[in-house]
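Entry 14. Structure prediction run on the chain below.
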Amino acid sequence: MSMPEIKCTHIDKCCAASSLLQSIALEEAAISHILNAEGEKLQKAISLSCSLNDLVEINKSVEDMVDKLTTLETVLKSKLDFIRPLLADHDEPHHKPE
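Output returned:
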């Protein structure tokens, strides 16, 4: 399977910044769904009265996922910091395209 190709003749800074911001928002939404699922996993394990060893193992699994999501949040924050100047340039209500 090949990688998708993006063929663009011209994308202005505002459009690119908007697309990047939308992708960050989608990733943040996905993170919230993953965190919710991890919380439900813990609640289910507790309600099933799993053994202490099982609860510790499940908790470790959730902890590992939260650690990975924390790393992803750091990456998303870096992306946002990168595009913030582009967004500020196009904050004006009557901005004319470049």
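The chain has two helices and no strands.
Filed with the rest of this week's runs.
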